[in-house]
Amino acid sequence: MRMFVRLVFGLFVLRAAVASPRFSRQVDLDTYDSAHYDVDLDNINLENQDTYDYEDGLTIDDPQIEIGTLAPPDYNYPEKEVEEEEEEEEEEELPLKPQLVPQGSGGSGVLMGPDTQKGMPTCLLCTCLGGSVYCDDLKLDSVPPLPKDTTHFYARYNRITKINKSDFASMNKLKRIDLTANEIKSIDEKAFLGLPNLEELVIRENHVSQLPALPETMTLIDASHNNIGTKGIHSEAFKDMTALLYLYLTDNHIDYIPVPLPDSLRSLHLQRNNIQMMHEDTFCNLKDFNYIRNALEDIRLDGNPINLSRTPQAYVCLPRIPIGDLI
Predict the structure, then answer these.
(1) Domain region containing 7
(2) What Gene3D superfamilies does the annotation carry (predicted)?
């Protein structure tokens, strides 16, 4: 009888498992035992077996954990990609606004600076960095038109033969001009007078015979290794240059010291010229023996046919004796 009851219970459990969609595993009937159910088999009234309602007497609790695989969440990646594509399209639609280099003297004011005589923009032919324009070693035969904001101009080691007044016209910001090692023979007398901020002029290693007039703002003048002679410097050319610090006239044909020299001068280089004599008041003030010229510490007269020992009173106001022959 017990065997029969167990069989009935097993069939009931099997039917419940098959009917429920929540269970996917097959039930092993042999594993069920009477201990799994709260039923006293000995006290079952078999006589009332026909009227016993198994479905009302026995219930199987629904499982607490649902067995299965959860679908991954939807992260909406396509929306982010669409936003990035829209941003890229907006960036592509932005118009380009190139900054034009200001128009220079005699130029057209196009991008990359005014055009040269060869039809090439100056800043494409040369190198423009900020306010500095570098045109070194380009076989130029003339000064190219410069942007108006140029502050420093370098055209060294070229073939420039002449400086015209129009080359630097209206260049109000120009501070330094360096034309070292060209073939310059002549410079227009007013080529540099229209430059209110010019401070440094370097024209060494050329063929200049006449030093042009220069603005009073000069701090450095280097005209060494040229052909400047007795009449190549204007009378009192440096008198009003109250900011002049360095005057280099080495390797020319000068036969005198170009006085008067401003008190601001620190360095005077006149070596290898044709200076034969010096006046006692060249550097000092004979009327004021208390006058001391502290700034002028570097005077080079070596390589000249002058005997410095003949004019000892000319150096009493200087912090150092000039360099040159004393015999």
Answers:
(1) 2-57
(2) Ribonuclease Inhibitor
